[in-house]
Structure prediction request, 655 residues.
Amino acid sequence: MSMTLTEKILARRAGKSAVTAGDSVLVDVDVLMTHDVCGPGTIGVFKREFGEKARVWDAKRVVIIPDHYIFTSDRRSNRNVDILREFVRDQGIPYFYDVIDDPSGKWEFDASRGIELAQYGAKYAGVCHIALPEKGHTRPGEVLVGTDSHTCTAGAFGEFATGIGNTDAAFVMGTGKILLRTPPTMRFRLVGEMQPGVMAKDIILHVIGEIGFDGATYKAMEFGGEGVGPMSIDDRMTVANMGVEAGAKNAIFEADAKTIAFVKARAAEHGTAVPFETVTPDAGANYVYDLTVDLSALEPTVALHPDPGRRKVASACGDIKLDRAYIGSCTGGKTSDFEAFADIVDGKEVRIDTFGVPATPQIVRELKANRRNGRSTWDVLLDAGVRMTENAGCAACLGGPSDTFGRINEPLSCISTTNRNFPGRMGDAGGRIYLASPYTVAASALAGHIVDPRDYLPGVRELEEVGA
Amino acid sequence: MSTVIRGKAYVVGDNIDTDQIIPAQYLALVPTIEEEYRKLGTYALCGLPVEEYPTRLTENEKVPCPYNIIIAGRNFGCGSSREHAPIALGAAGVEIVIAESFARIFFRNCIATGELYPADCPERLCEVFKTGDALEIDLDALTVKRAADGASHALNPLGEVKTVVAAGGLFAYARETGLVPERSAAS
Ligand code: SF4
Prediction:
């Protein structure tokens, strides 16, 4: 029987020769990820249901990444990191990316040292969905579940990855298994090549606009086609990340040589190598939806407040005034995102308050090491007036405690490289959030209102004219 | 366990996301700590814009709230995977959400926690009922009636969802079906 990529992975991990959409299956989990917001509750359910002395099913397969509410004086948030540490110590979990280096210490954010300078130890890894691949925990063909809806990001590596709640996660902790309904698959064929000024974020904002922001509810989104090959790993992650913004259970890319090289390199670097087997979709598999996306026809795109499906091309946004710009998160806080941002603001100055939060400490290091005309990308961003923090993490992407860096504490309009723009998402319930690519956010930060970044990208308009 | 639910409705529109159900600044509360579970209930749906929803689900942080039934439009519970969302509603005293459709993770979390029934319906009931309406829901007959006029509206079949929620959630169900050992054997 022909199967989609998602069906094939679920069949393998359920120990069946075939599954089809709608089948309920008990699946073996390869990796369970949790963080500081949902980890303590998951641990609570695990102990309540399996007993105080219960052991996790496989300590090497539980990855714990505090990242959400870290750099805040909120006492409960600091305590939650301590709950994780204590559990990790009891269970002997090797992959715990603690905020501090002392395994018996307590985490306390020191506001008097300011929010910009790094306050973490050597192990801290930053935003879980970027840290997972960076540290070598994502592999093609596997099943990854996490207590975070954007766990779907790891679908970029050809694996089945989905977000679950605390109770489900506690069940996985104790049994290594999860009950899943096999989702029907929607196929997205990417063809053509993105034009200068267009980024991966524009692909997914376009797709969500096309199918609606509940258009993939309960379904798998499978991305394939010749347009995938040239996309970088970062680009694929950006697209997979926002699958859940269309309601998808998972989003998945076919793995190729680029994927495998990336995965092997990270595993070798961090000593996390585990054998894996790449899975490909069968010809003739059953798709409930099929859409060809011509990447060459895409334009810089914005999702208007208040949901990620409100698509509009940036050039048609008219005069939407902004108070603030934000670059960061698991969607738009990677090195390549900041580099794109810097391409636009290099040598210029932002006109509105602009905050930059790299997703991981590794990205902070890269931005400080990368050079443009002899200066680091980090300094270029600072000189352009971007407030950068070394304290990598989720920060204001989801609002968080009121002292969170970049949080919207008043009803402001903000353009952001993040993934959600529901009312109250970045803090104040009256805030208006516009989602866009790093290029579009950068250009809009220079202009003070939403603009098409192609007018700001050195060489782009000229090139187009020569080519025309 | 009775499968008739009687009480007062709280009516909301489309796309009520998890940030509106329980805003992110309250996520540091750990649902398995009893006092923090109760606290979560006091904040349920407090992210709804006040202009649109002048009547609040909970007033003055009092739980249980006066409403045990939520009626919603499309895509209820979209957004994050936070289990705090169904838990906050459950802790506020909500027993069932009837919506035109649900976001996947929220739906699943309702079932896993056993906090409340997620029921979908073919009709747009959020335009039929008003906040404060007294309703009677029969989960066997799959009907929802307004006490005032007795008009009956259909619910879609709940299937396994009813069994698992009635059992008390994923773990209770898993014990009944032998997926995980009895509690005494586990500890
Ligand atoms: S960066 Fe934002 S979307 Fe990503 S995991 Fe953190 S809070 Fe969630």
User: Anything to note?
Assistant: Residues A 68, 127, 129, 148, 150, 329-330, 394, 397-398, 418-419 surround iron/sulfur cluster (CB under 6 Å). The mean pLDDT of chain B is 94.
